[in-house]
Amino acid sequence: MTQEQLLEMVEEMGLPCAYDHFAEGQSPEPPFLVFLYPESRNFAADGVAYFKKNRLHIELYTEYKSVELEERMETVLDLHGIFYTKSEVWIESERLFEVLYGMEV
Known about the structure:
The protein is 22% helix and 42% strand. By secondary structure, it is an alpha+beta fold. The protein has a single domain, classed as 2-Layer Sandwich (STM4215-like).
């Protein structure tokens, strides 16, 4: 998946988004998305990265549990044929839910 394809896919989710984080003072009101590539999972052959895969995280932040928003995100991922894992956590200090979608691209 190219950077352009990723941006188009994230825009289809219809929420404000940024790579890794929003600049200080620029964070929108929830809900919003953050996406990042926290690691790569390359396959090596003959001492070189023969097949490159990046781990992609798309994080959904909401003030309240929103099954509707999660379904919207999952529909977009499904339409793009992306297999993902999903986890959720309450961030007490931010008073936000984070739903993390992890995938390899």
